[in-house]
Amino acid sequence: MKIDESLRTEYVRQRKVAEKLKELVDSQIQSRKPPTWHYESRVKGEESFALKMECGRADNPSEIEDTFGCVLVVPNYSALGSAEEVVNSLFGRPAVRRPRDSSETAKDPTDFRFDDLRLYMRYPASEMTPPTGVEGTLFEVQIRTFLQHAWTIATHDIVYKSDQLSWRRERIAAQAKAALEQAEVTIAMMSALEKNDVLPETSKDYRRFNNIIESLRDHWDSEQLPTNIRLLAVGVDGILRDIGLSSDDLPAILDTGRTRYGGRHNLDWSPYRAIVRYLSEQHAAKFKRCLSRKGRGHVFVYPDVLSALGLDRTEAPRATFVDDVENQPSAAKSENALL
Fold it and tell me: Which of 204, 239, 281, 302 has the fewest CB atoms in 10 Å of its CB?
């Protein structure tokens, strides 16, 4: 596309500022965002800049609001407010917020066009740092969810950069946007929706898992339990069932084990290690039979559990384990010494 020299000159001027702005804003947002959020940014290309000018999309040609623009992507709608707070804490209140009020829209209920949250910020001056040369420069921050981001990435070029307008294509893109918005609403309202009577309340499996989680929380503080306690519960349930026990047996197993070790669980053991050790002591015959027979799946055990059961490794085909440092080859010992 032919670009007039005057537009090219203006673009070069604004691009230099935008590139410096990008360096500063990228660093500040990256340092403040949680690791589960996504961030990306760009400096507008020359052709896009010129086209925006010529099509009357720039209120102030000497200051295009998105010559530098970035997007902050959060897991779901509930995190949008937190993301906005992060941006405001870094750069002050926005010069313009679109939409002005998240609780009110100008769109019809049947309209699903782009409406992500956009903040137009001016880079602030600071008395604590030397001047940057970009103070007061306007830039755009879009804040959206991962589902909104996926829709934008998947449809943007197909809809907006095609050689010919297609009513059908844009209709399909809008339908996809509507479906994703419904998914967003469902996710945001999940805690309320789960209380409805349309769905079953639980299942036999989930009742067992929750019984195990309750027992674990009765015996260990939250910082001693994994963040993914669900995975631990499913693993413990599998071992109990393989041995011929149930989740109802776990409280007594834990109580007996704790009593045997002086009224407290060994804090050098993970909750899983404590449970398999107690099983080897309290239900030795069943546990030994479980590990000795060939079958689907494996059971992770520690060497002391095999010793307590009187088994060597060749007699426990279902057992998997990690060697103690003392039993590892010298190279592995050296590596562990460095960790």
Answer: 204
For residues 35 and 33, give the distance between their C-alpha atoms in angstroms, rounded to a whole number.
6
Q: How far apart are CA 302 and CA 322, in angstroms?
A: 7
Question: Per DSSP, what are the bridge partners of residue 96?
Answer: 120
Q: Are 312 and 306 in contact (CB under 8 A)?
A: yes
Band of residue 339 on the pLDDT scale cut at 50, 70, 90: very low
Give CA separation, 47 vs 44, 54, 173, in Å: 9, 11, 25
Choose among 270, 308, 258, 269: nearest CA to 288.
308
65-90 pLDDT, tens digit per residue, is 999 999 999 999 999 999 999 999 99
Burial of 99 (0-12, 13-18, 19+ CB in 10 A): middle
Output the pTM of the full model. Answer: 0.74
